UniProtKB/TrEMBL annotation:
Family membership noted in the UniProt record: Belongs to the UPF0434 family.
One Pfam family in the UniProt entry: Trm112p
Classification via InterPro entries: Trm112-like
Alphabetized HAMAP family for the sequence: UPF0434 (MF_01187)
Name this polypeptide is given: UPF0434 protein SAMN06893097_110234
Gene Ontology cellular component list: cytosol
Length: 65
């Protein structure tokens, strides 16, 4: 049994390719490794990654200044 490849923030690179903002525009997300967050390229929200799990809830996101 092989382990899946891990990318930034311990996430599978294939998962990172398909993750999108949960808001209505569904824009792709980029990684901010230093902050441990996924960033929306459209609405400027930052979604936390906790224990290798992206928390893509609008109520949990913060607006970046």
């Amino acid at each position: 049994m092989t382990t899946p490849p891990t990318g930034p923030l311990g996430l599978d690179p294939a998962l990172l390719e398909i993750l999108a903002c949960p808001d209505t525009h569904h824009s792709p997300l980029t990684v901010d490794e230093a902050a441990g967050e996924l960033l929306c390229t459209t609405c400027d929200r930052a979604f936390p990654v906790r224990d290798g799990i992206p928390v893509l809830l609008l109520d949990e996101a913060r607006h970046r200044a």
